[in-house]
Amino acid sequence: MITRMSQLFLRTLREDPADAEVPSHKLLVRAGYIRRAAPGVYSWLPLGLRTLRKIENVVREEMEAIGAQELLFPALLPREPYETTGRWTEYGDGLFRLKDRKNADMLLGPTHEEMFALTVKDLYSSYKDFPVRLYQVQTKYRDEERPRAGILRGREFVMKDSYSFDMTDEGLDEAYAAHRAAYQRIFDRLGIDYAICQATSGAMGGSASEEFLAISENGEDSFVRAVDGSYAANVEAVVTQAPEPKSVEGLPEPQVHDTPDCETIAALTSLFDVPADQTLKCMAVMVREPGEEWQLHGVLLPGDRELDPKRLEASLEPAEFRLAEEKDFAEHPFLVKGYIGPKGLQANGVPLLADPRVVAGTTWITGADEANKHITGLVAERDFHVDRFVEAAEVRAGDTGPGGVELTLARGIELGHIFQLGRKYTEAFDVQILDENGKRAIPTMGSYGIGISRVMAVLAEQLHDEKGLNWPAEVAPYQVHVAVANKDAAALEAGEQLVADLDAAGVEVLFDDRPKVSPGVKFKDAELLGMPYAVILGRAFADGKVELRIRGGETKEVPFDEVVSLITQ
Amino acid sequence: MITRMSQLFLRTLREDPADAEVPSHKLLVRAGYIRRAAPGVYSWLPLGLRTLRKIENVVREEMEAIGAQELLFPALLPREPYETTGRWTEYGDGLFRLKDRKNADMLLGPTHEEMFALTVKDLYSSYKDFPVRLYQVQTKYRDEERPRAGILRGREFVMKDSYSFDMTDEGLDEAYAAHRAAYQRIFDRLGIDYAICQATSGAMGGSASEEFLAISENGEDSFVRAVDGSYAANVEAVVTQAPEPKSVEGLPEPQVHDTPDCETIAALTSLFDVPADQTLKCMAVMVREPGEEWQLHGVLLPGDRELDPKRLEASLEPAEFRLAEEKDFAEHPFLVKGYIGPKGLQANGVPLLADPRVVAGTTWITGADEANKHITGLVAERDFHVDRFVEAAEVRAGDTGPGGVELTLARGIELGHIFQLGRKYTEAFDVQILDENGKRAIPTMGSYGIGISRVMAVLAEQLHDEKGLNWPAEVAPYQVHVAVANKDAAALEAGEQLVADLDAAGVEVLFDDRPKVSPGVKFKDAELLGMPYAVILGRAFADGKVELRIRGGETKEVPFDEVVSLITQ
């Protein structure tokens, strides 16, 4: 296949687009792969569309390899199924909602658990039909608050979403493992540097869940990795490694001290000359379980740790929380700002939520529940009782992960997410299947997504250099870029012959045959567009030689006659 | 490629869906190709998606063959460009409109002239870049008042739309001719019985325009064909073959007659004992040019013809019309109901719009503008003057078309539409291109569409029989359906060998390997699903023979050993 740049609908830009901040966005626009149509909404120009389709096909091959069957759901969906699962409301402003001419509520699908569950219910009724794995490559819509970075976070985007349906939990485990392995093969084939992160399942519901994150300093997601690569997790999913509980026997009794104007951890550590991790930060927090009233809770953290609201949110889900405000303090006069302690909270019936490090037998300096007073030697599970351990403290580089490994912080871009949903959706739609004993059973479900258009941005982000893009051969729009940079008619003729020979050998070729464009511009365009190989018919062509440039690698002068065999090998 | 029916996500139905009226809808649902998600919105199940993709690829091949380049625009679009061309409003309730979280107006694209014109403006600036032909295969949205017949008229549907941009009118003619020929190749390859109809260009604007209509009694569009196939046209586009004007010299003077209670054409022809086509129907009609007031007009038709409102509408466009109502009669007291005549209208300054048959020298019996009086011998262009000829009369089978050919009426389904748009859109967006002389010029544009998902419905509609679907080989989900209908283990084993051999020979095979399904059900499913060939390993397998069934054709018993070579030949 040969595409001639003299014909190609393309204009490369020398300047970065004004709204672009990250390299992938700048380069994909400058190289004429994508073009903005509206905020967070992009058009795919010919080169971009070819790359997108090739990524789709890599994903398709690996999905077919695990026995998943492709179908295609509409993007325009009725409200009712999403009402049934509560997501019509839960999605908030993130959902594009609209009304049709008959005033019926509709939405643009952000994800399709509802539709797949309903279709399986429609078509299947016996355990013999299971397991089944289904997928689609489809255009999705989310009204992102901050669409950014071109196709990295768009409002209209292409996604591969698959869904597994199994009669047993073991079946779900298998489907999950099969998808996990397929995703590894996909991202390995694409040459992406990624980590598989333990994740919380959030609004999707369900149990096990992992995220595939591309390592990128421009990523929006922070995550945590073991320095030895043995472990990675979303910050929300990091489990604090708590010390073993100790006996409280023989520990000294607590003592109350006058500590005037000592309302911060810093003041406290300075006053008692101890490290901050021996003090206990005691925060008043309001928590609301779904459908209930706000209720006062205490959150206990080692004094050297800040509260990470996202971690506490994930830990408390589905309950929500907020820090106590003036009115809450006013309603609970036993709360003495700057001097709150676990004893006073517990004495007033306030549930205590604590960092896992606050185990039995640990000793703390904390507030004495009186103005200008602190208490030392307060022992967990002797002087106060933790009602529930929560992951609320910030995670820091140098923290210890599972097995004692040292953790570092990293940033990443979400490529994919796999979920064990369980029966949340199949129960919502009452998907009843007759089991081997003729009894009704509800199948269990998994949901697995890859952001196809985002993968393209990630490839641009991870593999570019200062000169331009650099595609892996498998998804490059063309494998070889041939440029004639010699005004000699024989060179152009030889170029024609070369691209014909490459085409005959099954190589996809982008041919820069533009007659009035300078060699310098042709070289710059070749680097910007980023095909894996470029062949330049330049000055040395007079000596029967051409340049073979490996994008991001070496440049060799090779005999013209050998270039086809060098490339096809 | 082998797909096993024991695994395939499919359930065939014996009953027609309750909401289905036409065969394509019934069969595509019963055979598990599509499934309804909302009114006019369908999901593509595995078999349906395979067929859809194959149709897309036939279209792609022919578009690439005429040098069109594929790109892909979003479906979610900003309001502004459609505001610029007026289509934000013109589309009325047919447009899906929505607001994003920032309250910006957006729409779901019904067609993309605006976006393509804007993108060409963005990328190109010199005549050297032209001509350019661009296309996309994309999901479109129209909020149809009456979505019907499954994917025949859906609200979310797949369309191929292409756009040509040329610097000269001759270039546009070439682009139009290239698309016309490509469309013929596409529909010929698909084996569709179709007609190319002259069309009016309607809301799209522009000049030349033709529709590709699939001949179908379930079609929504009526059209007119020459009995010899030399001509076809939309009813709106049929041009009346008018007689030559005649001299008015020596014709008798008109005479007024008392005609009490003679307010219909039937009464008039009976009274004067003449054929209806010698009488002149004279109708009071209100016409409004864009931005102006309603104005009274007379419409003159031969008495044997009814008014066809769609034809008059197309003829008057962009003006609109309505029949005069009581208030209009009240405002124009010279209008005498049942006795209106052209003389009285003209005397009162009312413009006369006439059927082309009302040429100079024709003689008519018509109203005398007085109650209970008619006039005979009224001669066109002697006693009254036609201000403008319009196509307002119904078209009938037996009418005469261009070159005197006899016309018949037919029904069809619109498969595609090609338009010479001219500069309507490029002017709206001020697409200025430097021409050979360095002067600014506006390129001229063509727009060409094929309803891909509708083509699938048309194939089902034209090619089915009472037993089921019958796909052309090029777009069938699989070329061969192999069914084991013999409980002998050797038969199943032979079936496995056969599908492996067919697969090795590059044939796509659907393999009915379901162990507990009866031969009868397997035969019925094979017919319903409609692959071009079915191979049945049945009773005769004991004698080394299998049945080779050509869908919709003959069934032969052939030696098992020969079946692969028979199919691949």
Highlighted features:
homodimer; 569 residues; alpha+beta; BirA Bifunctional Protein, domain 2; YbaK protein; Rossmann fold; 3 domains; nine-stranded mixed beta sheet; 15 helices; 30 strands; globular
Summarize this structure briefly.
The structure is a homodimer of 569-residue chains. The first copy, chain A, is built from 15 helices and 30 strands.
SSE arrangement:
Two copies of one chain form a homodimer.
Chain A: E1 2-4, H1 23-30, E2 34-38, E3 41-44, H2 46-65, E4 69-70, E5 76-78, H3 79-84, H4 87-90, E6 96-99, E7 105-108, H5 113-123, E8 132-141, E9 156-166, H6 169-189, E10 194-198, E11 209-215, E12 221-226, E13 232-234, E14 255-258, H7 265-272, E15 280-288, E16 294-302, H8 309-316, E17 320-323, H9 326-331, H10 342-347, E18 352-354, E19 363-367, E20 373-379, E21 388-389, E22 407-422, H11 424-428, E23 433-434, E24 440-441, E25 444-451, H12 452-463, E26 480-484, H13 489-504, E27 509-512, H14 519-529, E28 533-537, E29 545-550, E30 555-559, H15 563-568
Parallel strand pairs in A: 1-27, 4-8, 16-18, 18-21, 26-27, 26-28
Antiparallel strand pairs in A: 2-3, 5-7, 6-7, 8-9, 9-25, 10-11, 11-22, 12-13, 12-22, 14-20, 15-16, 15-17, 19-20, 22-25, 23-24, 28-29, 29-30
